[in-house]
Amino acid sequence: MEVSVAGEPSTQTASTGYDRAQELKAFDDTKAGVKGLVDAGILNIPRIFIRPSDELVEELNCQQNSFQVPLIDLDEIKGSNREEIVNQIRTASETWGFFQVVNHGIPLKVLEDMIQGVRDFNEQDVEMKKQWYSRDQMKRVRFSSNFDLYQSRTANWRDSLILSCSVSHNFDPQELPAACRETTLGYIKHVRSLGDTLFEIISEALGLKSEHLQDMECGGASTFVCHYYPPCPEPELTMGASSHSDPAFLTILLQDQTGGLQVLHQNQWVDVNPISGGLVVISNEKLKSVDHRVIASGVGPRVSVACFFAGSDAVPPRLYGPIKELISEENPPLYQTFWCQSILPNMQLRG
User: Fold this and answer.
1) Cis peptide before 274 (omega within 30 of 0)
2) Among the residues of 143-274, which ranges form H helices?
3) Per-residue pLDDT tens for 261-302?
4) Cα–Cα distance between 182 and 178 in angstroms, integer?
5) Residue 212: CB atoms within 10 Å
6) CA gap 175, 177 in Å, rounded
7) pLDDT at 151 over 90
8) Global pTM?
9) Nearest one of 299, 200, 243 to 60, comparing CA atoms
10) Residue 28, domain member (yes or no)
11) Domain with 225 in it: what CATH number?
């Protein structure tokens, strides 16, 4: 790989002699991820992480604007304020496809412990981490850097621990890394419960019975993606997570206090400032899932945990499509029917 270690001159390779495939494989073969590069003391990031020239001209830091991501208090969701909260979530989902929630029922300690658990996993001895390194998408628990490393234009500056589970197939504790085992099991339980509540609210916001989306098994399978973004020596040249939208029915995102998450709203990038005890919810705009990204930073590490609710993983597979009760001449179907299994292998787990 093209890297510069502290105290050593930068090695430049002529563009005509650059072998991207070789550099990708060399990075992948270390099984140490991006943190391995940082631990080696690099001063210049490898070329595989540098954004294309057409993207480098873009200013990543948000310009001053008056937009603020909607913040919704769920404290009275079981009480007299339910209708108002349903209306707030309907408006946020239709206009932003993105909002933050507080007083959601998950204790602050559970959130903080989960963040620390992700740090503990990534900051343990590298040989321990390597035992979990894999690109086999059939593995329920795997660690890697950039799930799409060999397909994307450029690699993102982050490492990921991916946990795939479903209501019918809970984790055996021994399946999880010891460094974050107990915290992860507790967090999964709480987030699934919050997901059930949000599916109820969104069902009501759509004018359906509260159990409609749950009856469709929209939350049947879930994937937890624990991202670790080490500090970057040249953050202006790369991204923590490039712009993307989520194919899941619903995403619940926990982020630490570092910042860097941005959402595209009315063609402007808006900072999603961390709120202590808050969670980010990514639903869908009225027409499509909203684009978001994470900018790289010279400080860190940044930690986030995204839970993707991606529908049923039952066999035979369940067919999903536009909800018949919501289709009319004024609201024709926008998407075809599909099987979740047909899109899950290509999910862009970048939250």
Assistant:
1) no
2) 181-205, 212-215
3) 999 999 899 999 999 999 999 986 554 678 999 999 999 999
4) 8
5) 18
6) 7
7) yes
8) 0.87
9) 243
10) no
11) 2.60.120.330
Dihedral sign from CA coordinates of 241, 100, 180, 163: negative
Rounded to an integer, what distance in angstroms lies between the CA atom of residue 72 and that of residue 270? 17
Residue 27, in any domain of the structure:
no
Half-sphere exposure of 134 (CA within 13 A, CB side): 11
In a domain, 217, yes or no: yes
Phi–psi pair at 253, nearest 5 degrees: -120, 125
Residue 56 domain-assigned?
no
Residue type at 197?
T
DSSP characters for 101-128?
EES-S--HHHHHHHHHHHHHHHHS-HHH
Specify the amino acid at residue 33: G
CB 287 within 8 A of CB 334: yes
Range of 229's domain? 65-346
Strands (DSSP E) contained in the chain are: 4-5, 42-44, 71-73, 98-102, 141-144, 159-166, 221-229, 239-244, 250-255, 261-265, 268-271, 279-282, 292-295, 302-309, 319-320, 338-339
**Residue 181 corresponds to which amino acid?**
R
What's the confidence (pLDDT) of residue 300? 92
Q: Give the pLDDT of residue 340.
A: 52
If one counts the domains in the chain, the total is 1
C-alpha torsion angle, residues 90, 93, 99, 103 (rounded to 10): 30
**pLDDT tens-digit series, residues 30-79:** 999 999 999 999 999 999 999 998 888 777 776 667 899 999 999 989 89
Which residue type, as a one-letter code, is found at position 297? S
Relative to beta strand 98-102, strand 279-282 is: antiparallel
**What pLDDT score does 351 carry?**
44
Torsion, Cα of 183, 29, 153, 230 (10° steps) = 40
171 touches 165 (CB < 8 A): yes
Average pLDDT for 308-321: 62
- Is the pLDDT reported for residue 316 higher than 70? no
Own/partner pairs for 170-179, CB < 8 Å, 24+ apart? Answer: 171/140, 171/141, 175/140, 175/141, 176/141, 177/121, 177/132, 177/141, 179/117, 179/120, 179/121, 179/124, 179/128
Instruction: Say if residues 236 and 60 touch (Cβ distance below 8 Å).
Output: yes
